[in-house]
Amino acid sequence: MADRYESYTRFTFDKPHPKVLRITMGGSGGRLNPVDATMHRELGDVWRDIDADPDVNSVILTGGPKAFSAGGDFAMIEEIMADFNARARVWKEARDMVYNIINCSKPIVSAMRGPAVGAGLVCGLLSDISIATKEARIIDGHTRLGVAAGDHAAIVWPLLCGMAKAKYYLLLCETVSGAEAERIGLISLAVEDAELDAKAEEIAIRLAEGAQSAIRWTKYALNNWLRMAGPTFDASLALEFMGFSGPEVREGVASHREKRKPVFPPGSPV
After folding, report:
1. Residue of 99, 188, 202, 76 whose CA lies nearest to 136
2. Is 160 part of a structural domain of the chain?
3. Coil, helix or strand at residue 107
4. What 8-state DSSP symbol labels residue 148?
5. Distance (Å, rounded) from C-alpha 62 to C-alpha 204?
């Protein structure tokens, strides 16, 4: 494995094919694969290294055996709430994560099983080919936490599944199964759990062995749809991080910790 990946502590890397790099998220503790501050930073940085790696033609992104990603851990969320410098740092990392995936020339295949939430979901849904098990649980939990749906939602959900479905799932934080996500166009494919890894490898190998300029230039052109939505994304991300300084997120975090329904304060006049 190239030296460029040695600094990453929250991923394991392997190569199921000489030109396919598989990234397995993990290492931050917990069977549901939470994203801590280190993994959040690494999820933004790794795409630049992949883009520059001449030995990689395609990528598989996957998670643990029980979960793709459980979202940000409470320690990171509470640091963002309490400290302006942390908010500014994580805002930049979240912005870089989205744009670095979009601008990575190598095609990315995501393989999602179990819950897919938070920063892991950002990468899973922005991947060029997104695959999930039929029982996977895709959740954008922002409004349940008490902040605007920033991250990736505004830039890609309406394009994938339409505005009506995007508003339904994002405003209400409804869970989308892998099977339903495929039906509405939110992901590329839904497969049985036993087939997930093999299907991801099959597609990544086909991409790795294909005409590289043609594939990369097609990805670049198609992603102009996402680049055109950049101002929408930037606004949503700024509003999300403004919310981390407000009262709603404090109740959202408390209710998650206490495993109860949140009781949010009355809405602001904006």
Report:
1. 188
2. yes
3. coil
4. -
5. 12
Residue 265 resides in a domain: no
CA distance 243 to 32: 26
Q: Give the list of residues 6+ apart from residue 179 with CB closer than 8 angstroms, or none.
A: 134, 135, 190
Predicted confidence pLDDT, tens digits, the chain (270 residues): 558 899 999 999 999 999 999 999 985 555 667 889 999 999 999 999 999 999 999 999 999 899 999 887 889 999 999 999 999 999 999 999 999 999 999 999 999 999 999 999 999 999 999 999 999 999 999 999 999 999 999 999 999 999 999 999 999 999 999 999 999 999 999 999 999 999 999 999 999 999 999 999 999 999 999 999 999 999 999 999 999 999 999 999 999 999 999 999 987 656
Please check whether residue 140 is in contact with residue 121, taking contact to mean a CB–CB distance below 8 angstroms.
yes
State the total domains in the chain: 1
| 8 Å CB contact between 10 and 61 | no
| 264 assigned to some structural domain | no
Q: Residue 67: which CATH number?
A: 3.90.226.10
- Distance, CA of 25 to CA of 209 (rounded, Å): 25
- The answer as to whether 57 is a domain residue is yes
Q: Which residue range is the domain that position 240 belongs to?
A: 3-258
| Phi, then psi, of 66 in degrees rounded to 5 | -110, -20
Whole-angstrom Cα Rg for the chain:
18
